[in-house]
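FW: tagging you since you asked about this chain on Friday. Here's the raw sequence from the shared folder, copied in full. Didn't touch anything.
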Amino acid sequence: MEHVSAAAVINGHGVVTRWSEGARRLTGHPAGEVVGRAARELLAGDVPPGALAALAGTVVLRHRDGSSLELSLRACPVTGADGETEDYLVVAEPAGDAGRPAETALTLVGEFFQQASLSMSVFDTRQRYLRVNEAGCRVMGMPEEALIGRHLWDTLDRTVDSRDFVRHLQHVAETGEPVQYENLTRSPSGPDEYAWTVEMWPVRDPSGEVAAVALAAFENTEQHRARQRLALLNEAAAAIGTTLDVVRTAEELVDLLVPRFADFASVDLLDWVLNADEPLAVPAEDVVMRRVAHRSAVEGFPRASARLGETDTYPPYSGPAKALREGRAVLSGVGDPDFERWMRVRNIQAPHNREYRNRLRSTLAVPLRARGITLGVAVAMRAAPQEPYTADDTALGEELASRAAVCVDNARRFARERTTALALQHSLLPRGLPGQAAVEVAHRYLPTVSAAGIGGDWFDVIPLSGSRVALVVGDVVGHGIPSSATMGRLCTAVRTLADVDLPPDELLTHLDDLVTHLAADDNADEVAELGATCLYAVYDPVSRRLTVAAAGHPPPAVILPGGAARLLPMTAGPPLGVGGLPFEATELTLPEGSVVALYTDGLVEDRDRDVDHATAEMCRALTAPAASLDALCDGVLKAVLPEEPSDDVALLLARTRALGADRVATWEVPPDPARVAATRQCAIEQLLAWGLDETAFVTELVVSELVTNAIRYGEPPIRLRLIRDRSLICEVSDGSSTSPHLRRAHAYDEGGRGLLLVAQLTQRWGSRQTGGGKTIWAEQPLP
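HL: got it, structure written out here
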C-alpha cells in the first residue's frame, strides 16, 4: 500500500471540522462528505479501550468503497485563547506503518501544516516570517520563499487594521498569552475586503520560553456580511420612520445606506406622493420623479445630478425606470448594455461625475412599494474598490426599501388626512369675523404638528340682536377627521342656537342634549360621551354686562384697564354629552376697554408642563404692553407655548366697547292704542336729533307696527328702545312670552300684514326671550 499520511480536526463534540487531501486519498471520502459529520460514523468497529484517554491507538475505518481500513491514530489537543481545549488535531497512517521512525511523523505534521485549509504562519519574536503554508501564501499573494525572513510590516499596507494585527502578534510574543479576535481587512493580493477570525498562540522551546508565535486565520467573510445585513435590518427598524414626514423618512433611509451599504444613495418619489393626492399610474415611457434625499460617502463626490426638490427624468431602459415599472429590484453594472447606455447619457447630462461613473461597479435600484402602490425608487451605487452588489445585497436592499416604503406611505396618508382635516376646519372656522361694534377681536388658531393629527378646537364670534355679540370656544377630544367633523357639527349647532338668542346656560343645555343624541345615533346600544367642551359668552355693549357659561371648559381670563389678568371665577359644568346636569351662568359688568381671553386647553395643558404654572404665564403675558390685540395674541403664544405643542391651540381675545347714552334712547309705552302716535313722534324726533332723517319713514312704520302689536297682543310693561350702532336697531319689549310669527293674510283680512311689512322694509328682524317676557327687534342699514 502506498504510504499516505492523513490529518483531520475534530471538535469537542466529536464532529469533523477539517479534512486534509491526504485523508481523502487514504479513505476515499472527500471533504464535502465528511466535514460536519460525527467522526464515529466513519468507524467500522469500536474504539479500543484506553485509546481515547491515551489519544492514540489503532482503529478500523470504513473506506468509501466499502472495505475496512486499519489505521494508526494519534491526537493532539488544540487550546483556545482561554487555555481550554477546543479541538483535536488527529494524524492517521496505515497500521502497518506505525513503526516508522519519528522523522516520518514530523513529515506528516509538516504536510498537515502545508495542506491545511486555514491560513497558517509562524513568526519569530521579532515578527519575522519562519513558515507560511500554502493557504497563507495565497492570501499574501507571494510564495513562501519570498516571505521567509521578512518582517511582517514589509508585507502589509500601513492601515489601522494592519497596526492592530501587528500589535496582537507582539502581545503574544511578549506575554505568552494566546489571542483570538476578528479582523476586517483587504488582503495584500487583491482589493477585495475579507473578514477573518484570527488565532495567535505562543510556541515554546524545551525550557518553556516563547520562541515563536503561530497564527491561524479562518476566513468568515460570508458570515460577517450576514451579521452586517442583520444588524442593518435591526437598525432600520428603529432608524426609519421616526417621524410622519415623507422627506425626513427618505433622508433616514439614505443615512442608513451610506456608507455601510453604498457609496452614494438617493430617493426619488413620484410627484403625487408629495402632494398627498390619489395614486397615479406609472408612466410607460420616460419616468419623471422628484429628488427628496441623497447622500455621498465622500462629501461632494459624486455631486448629485439632481438637486433636492428638483425633478429628474429616467429613460425606460435605466435601472430606476425598470424598477418602478416592473415593481422589483434591478441590479445592473459593468457589462450590462442598458447600464452602459444609461451611463453614457448621464455623462452627457452631468459630465462633472464622469470620474465617479468610470469607477462604478454596480447599481441597485429598488422600488418603494407599500400596500400595492409604487411610491418611488431608492438607488444605491458602489464604486471601486468596493465589491459589486450580490444577490444577498439585493434581498437586503428590497427589505430596507420595503420598510422605508411603508413609513413613506404612512407619512403620505398622515399628510393627506391632515390636509383634509385642515381644509375641513378652515371651512368651518370664521375666515373674516362679522362686523359688529360690541368688541374688537383678534384670534389665533395653531393646528398641532404631532403624529396624533389635527384636533377639534374651534372658536366663533356671532353677532346677536341689540348690538350684542357671542364669543365661543370649544374643543372636541381626539384628533383627525372624525374630530373635525364633530367640531363642525357643534359649531353649526351653536350658531343655530345663538340665532334663537338663548341665554348662555340654556344654550349649553340644548347643546348637551344634541351631543347626547349624536352619540346615541353613533351607537344605538350605548350612549357614549363625545368628550367635547365649550364656553359660551355674551357681551352687551349697552349694559356692559358679560354673561358666561361653560361645559367642562377652562374659564376665561379678564384684564381690566390698567389692572392684572385674572381667571373669571365660575362653575365650569360637566362636559357636553354627560346629560342630566345643569349649567350655571356667571355675570359681571366690565368697564370699556377690558380684554376677555378665551382659549382651549392646548394653550396651558401639556404632558410636560404644569397647568397652574402655564396659566400663570398666560396671565402675565396678557398684561404685557402690546401695540394691538394681534400683537398681544402673538406675545401670549410665544410666552406660553412650547416649541412643538402636542395639541391644537385656539386663542380668542376681545376688547370691550360701550354704547353711551347718546346712542341709545328708551321710552316706556302705556298699554293704550291712543299713545302709539305719541310714541312714534318721539322716535322721529330722536332720529332727527341723530341726523338720520332718511330713515324716519321706515322707522315710523316699524315703530307703529311693533308698538301696536305689543299693546294689542302683549302684556305690560311695554318699552321701546332705539340703538344707533352700525345699523339702526328698533326694539319693542313686553311682558308676554308668546313669540310672534309671520302669516299669510287673505285678501279681505283686516290685519296680519304688520310683521310681513316689517320684514320687507328692514334688513333683518327677530325676537328673543327675556327674563320678563320677550323683545321683538328689527334692523335697518344706516344711510
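FW: The radius of gyration is 46 Å.
HL: agreed, and Residues 505 and 584 are 6 Å apart (CA to CA).
FW: great, closing this out.
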